[in-house]
Amino acid sequence: MTDNQTNQTLRRFAATTALVVAFVLVGAKVWAWIATGSISLLTSAADGLVDVLASLVTFTGVRYAAKPVDSGHRYGHGKAEAVAAFVQALLLAGAAIELAIESVQRLIAPEAVTEMGVGIWVIVGSSLAAVALVTMQTYVVKRTGSMAIAADRAHYVTDVAVNLAVLLALLIQRYTGWTCADATGALAITCYMLWNARGMAAHALIQLLDRELGAEDRERIKATVLGTSGVRAVHDIRTRDGGDRVFVEYHVEVDGWLPVADGHTISDRSEEAVMALFPAADVTAHLEPAGIVDRRLDDLIVK
User: Against a cut of 0.85, is the pTM above it?
Assistant: First the structure.
């Protein structure tokens, strides 16, 4: 099995596991909310419902992104992961706004929370499950670089923070009798959800809008091409993150007196060297004679 196939298997496993866990946790939290009447538990349950929807989006996005290149998508389907991540951000932001409104209403008119012991144990169990899931997703993200799994992991990191906030609010209300603790905790959670949604959307847009790879990666590419025997210069380097792989294009210059076949061989070697820099890459080199004066993208870039 190739590294790319292994990475796709890991993505699918992570997406499926997250979906199953999300269904279980949201069911437990809804039951606990019904038993206790806690607004912070409702906030956590709503966040869990968003997790279910987000995991469904990730589940679909990862599978679509793994589809091979076809006649209609010659660059592949990798951006489906970024679309999935952006949709998750919108879902999270929408849920946060709705719950913030409900939390403010509870602050104005506090309601008693009952059966707090049930709520506390459900939150403890949910936290442990979320931590285990985040640990697994962290490994998959490091191994594959999947943006969709990273966005899904951000949901569950939020879930851990949400659970801790709920637990703290329930404990404060249980042992101090402060009736606003539950709603205050819920309001704090919604602010955190909005902050997380903002970060997820910004990160997804980097890929969707074809932003260049970082300066360090571009310098590595340039140095690698120039280090290829026979290369005299390189210009017009263009890069983008396609989700399942990175795309790299550049113009490589060789001695003009070389036969075309020899120049092509040098160009191929430079492509192979650049591909070795990334777990998965699609590299295209345009061959040119060294010193040619022509219209260059490098001269047109807005600094």
Answer: no
